[in-house]
Amino acid sequence: MILHRILHIVFLAVSVLVSACTGRSTASSATPSSSGAPAAVSVPRFSADSAYAYVASQVEMGPRVPGSKAAANCAEWIEATLRRHGADTVIVQRTTLPDPMNPSRSLPVVNILGRFNPQAKSKVMLAAHYDTRPVADEESDASRASTPIPGANDGGSGVGVMLELARMIGADKPKTGVDLLFVDLEDSGSSANDDSWCQGSQYFAANLPYESIADTPAAAVVLDMVGAPGARFHREAFSDHYARQLVDRVWTAARAAGYADRFPDEGGAPILDDHLPLIRAGIPAIDIVENRSESTGSFPAAWHTLDDNMSNIDRSTLQAVGQTVAHFIYNYR
């Protein structure tokens, strides 16, 4: 994933003040009816089996290390899948950026944005990184530490959930517009340099492909490491600080979807992730990420190890996250 360490820094280090969620009510994720009660909105059923298969397809490609054939294949597969599921527009950003692990060389970077219902008055964004960590630097066996990780959870899980949501949205469009952003070069950073992480989303934030403020999503939700067995998702601290109303809305959606146990209304750690560049660009953004694992107190035990494989992906976790986000999307106004 991206932070790769819990950040003990002052919130003001993210040098931006962002309005939470443009004044929308957090009492309910649905629009009130004329009687004052929330209007019922039909939410399609999220398929954990489908999301799991999307994660498995990525792992079968091999580690999606930036600049590798597997990474190129994955980007092409994501683009093709978005088109197959009926995205109205697919935008591919291509650039080259210095390798954070070896600045003397450059890496090709590919971000993919699939837009559904972009003409809608209200729009939201979902985002995940599809690249994987080039080294297993959390391996206990030092002889294996230079091996790229499989990236089933750290990278693969967020992409899997989003591609299943793309299928749902293509088959049954919500009233709101939904942008699905898949970013590259997130996980090659160094603990010595916070800015070395999230290069793909930094590039996207500096080169937003939107024609106007009205065309820009009003909120963004990042999905990272959302597939581990028993995972629970605490309120990430930067999200809570800069976009608390948005966190409230998503955690309310979790309760409505029946997954309050997976989304405890408790604070979590501040994490350097892809939501921060979006916040700096003026898009209120939050991070759904496992950051208070019961076994480690922070990230899941398989994080940045070779155990980040399909044995550490659980359908029930994918279901909880996917159905929660679906409730958020289909009730968003």
Structure overview:
This protein is of the alpha/beta class and 333 residues long. It has helices at 48-61, 69-84, 152-171, 199-206, 237-242, 244-257, 275-280, 315-330, and strands at residues 89-99, 102-116, 123-129, 177-183, 219-224, 285-289. It has a 6-stranded mixed beta sheet with strand order 1-2-4-3-5-6, sandwiched between helices. A hairpin with a 2-residue loop joins strand 1 and strand 2. Helix 1 crosses helix 3 (152-171) and helix 1 (48-61) crosses helix 8. It is globular, with a radius of gyration of 18 Å.
Question: How are the SSEs placed, and which strands pair?
Answer:
Elements: H1 48-61, H2 69-84, E1 89-99, E2 102-116, E3 123-129, H3 152-171, E4 177-183, H4 199-206, E5 219-224, H5 237-242, H6 244-257, H7 275-280, E6 285-289, H8 315-330
Parallel strand pairs: 3-4, 3-5, 5-6
Antiparallel strand pairs: 1-2, 2-4
